[in-house]
Amino acid sequence: WRWRWPVSFERHVSIRVRAWWRASWVYRRRWAAGMDTIGLTKERHGTDYVPPLVAIRCNRWMDQVTVRMLPGQRLQDFVDVADRLAQTFGAQEGNCRVRSCRNPQRVRLWLLVHDPLTAVVPPFDPGPVSVEALIRGVPVAVAEDGTVWLLKLVGNHLLIFGATGAGKSSVIWAIIFALAPFVRAGLVKVWAI
Fold first, then answer.
1. Prediction pTM value
2. d(Cα 60, Cα 57) in Å, to the nearest integer?
3. Per residue in 7-23, pLDDT tens?
4. Cys bridge to 101: 67, 106, 126, 176, which one at CB 3.0-4.6 A?
5. Distance CA 24, CA 46 (A)
6. For residue range 112-160, what is the model confidence (pLDDT) as tens digits?
């Protein structure tokens, strides 16, 4: 299975085994001690309180750890120790992003364990050509979490800027390449200056 259908094997086996391993051995096993040494536990009347883990989701490049904050804690408390969280739980080069959740009592930690942007990203297959696909967005890049980033052009304005050598032309060519099938189908007209 691994050699014949590597994408399917990775999705159904490798990522799940990795997620189980990291959830069991990296997070749950080290969580209380890590929170204590980082300074995110609270002691009250002789009892230590640890921010509880709510969920752990892993993919090939990053772990998303959702934590319920203790009463009196705030998002900034986790932001202030993000580099220590990254070191404690094995994120790459201190890469821990702290994100808010819809629930104001929770915080989501994005711990980047592999960088999907170290290799050249080949152009994406834009998929079926339709007005709905164009409205949904065209694939133009890979985000830091390894997901494909869709650029929504319909009803939006886009400004690309950067210093010389920053890669502006790569962004523009990725957009034009993604739009090429829509141009051929007569759905898009490119005006470029």
1. 0.68
2. 10
3. 777 777 777 888 888 88
4. 106
5. 28
6. 887 777 778 788 877 788 888 888 888 888 887 778 888 888 888 888 8
Place of tokens 């990795």: 18
Summarised one tens digit per residue, pLDDT across range 14-66 is: 778 888 888 888 888 888 888 899 989 888 888 889 999 998 888 878 888 99
**Beta-bridge mates of residue 47:** 44
Residue 19 burial class via C-beta count within 10 angstroms: exposed 0-12, middle 13-18, buried 19 and up:
middle
Residue 140 buriedness (CB in 10 A; 0-12 / 13-18 / 19+): buried
Tokens of 109: 């930690």
Separation between Cα atoms, residue 42 and residue 53, nearest integer Å = 15
What are the tokens at 59? 């993919």
Full DSSP string of 112-160: E-S-TTSSPPPPPP--S-SHHHHHH-EEEEE-TTSPEEEE--TT-----
The beta strand positions in the chain, using DSSP E, are: 42-44, 47-49, 53-58, 62-68, 96-100, 106-112, 138-142, 148-151
Q: Which amino acid is at 86?
A: A
Greatest alpha-carbon pair distance for the chain in Å reads 71
